[in-house]
Amino acid sequence: MNIITYEEKYKDDMISMVIDARTALGLSATVRDDLYDVQKNYLGKGDSFWLAVDSNDCVIGCLGFSRIDNTNEAFLHRFYVKASKKRQGIGTELLHTAEQEMKKRGITVSKVHLGAPKEKWFESYAFYPKHGYIEYEPRYMRKEL
Predict the structure, then answer these.
(1) pLDDT tens digits, residue range 56-103?
(2) What's the CA gap between 133 and 107, in Å, rounded?
(3) Contact 59, 49 (CB under 8 A)
(4) C-alpha torsion 140→64→4→54, nearest 10
(5) Whole-structure pTM over 0.90, yes or no?
(6) Residues 67-77: tens digit of each pLDDT
């Protein structure tokens, strides 16, 4: 498995993986508009977006971040791992990649907005605290980098 900066050639595979990941969690197959143009919505704004790609060149995970204007903080976005590939360290690797890049850019606080209700988003509410994130208000977690 490799973590790579987003490349347009993976767009359809990434969209398909996100739909599958959401469906496996019992969520709607809705894909947020920003994922249809990662270049414009992340990379073109100076933010970052990564893909986890397996040995068959298939997308098995993704994660992006966007800096919060006029702060040293950033929000994580669109963090998905293919359902059949969970609990293999892919999410941890994506998260560490994002956190390292944030540090390089002078970002000192990583934030995430979680879904509700907690029962539906139980994986996120369990994953982030394992990696040092704390809930600072309902549905929001943060970590000092």
Answers:
(1) 999 999 999 999 999 999 999 999 999 999 999 999 999 999 999 999
(2) 15
(3) no
(4) 60
(5) yes
(6) 999 999 999 99
Contacts 24+ apart (CB under 8 A), 105-109: 105/67, 106/72, 107/67, 107/72, 107/73, 107/74, 107/145, 108/72, 108/73, 108/144, 108/145, 109/71, 109/72, 109/73, 109/74, 109/142, 109/143, 109/144, 109/145
Dihedral (Cα; 10, 105, 41, 113), 10-degree rounding? 100
Q: How far apart are CA 114 and CA 119, in angstroms?
A: 11
Bond prior to 117 in cis (omega within 30° of 0): yes
